[in-house]
Amino acid sequence: MMLEPSIDVLQEKIKSKYTLVILSAKRARQLSETKDLQVENPQSAKYVGQALEEVVAGKLYLEENN
């Protein structure tokens, strides 16, 4: 079974796997409460998958502090 989006595509957007996990988990909690999805017609029915789809779409990202 192939998981979408792939880790390679996700790491093009966010380099650290740890950061990716934390960001997607926080966003999944938000989605479970608000249902305010930023992508249309998500492939995933689960909140974490939907959060990862937002990362790939460029809707969910991490701002870097300078």
From TrEMBL:
Signal peptide: none
SUPFAM superfamilies according to UniProt: RPB6/omega subunit-like (SSF63562)
One of the record's GO cellular component terms: DNA-directed RNA polymerase complex
InterPro entries reported for this sequence: DNA-dir_RNA_pol_omega, Pol_omega/Rpo6/RPB6, RPB6/omega-like_sf
Enzymatic reactions: RNA(n) + a ribonucleoside 5'-triphosphate = RNA(n+1) + diphosphate
Gene3D superfamilies xrefs: 3.90.940.10
E.C. numbers: 2.7.7.6
Family in the record: Belongs to the RNA polymerase subunit omega family.
Name of this protein: DNA-directed RNA polymerase subunit omega
Gene, per the UniProt record: rpoZ
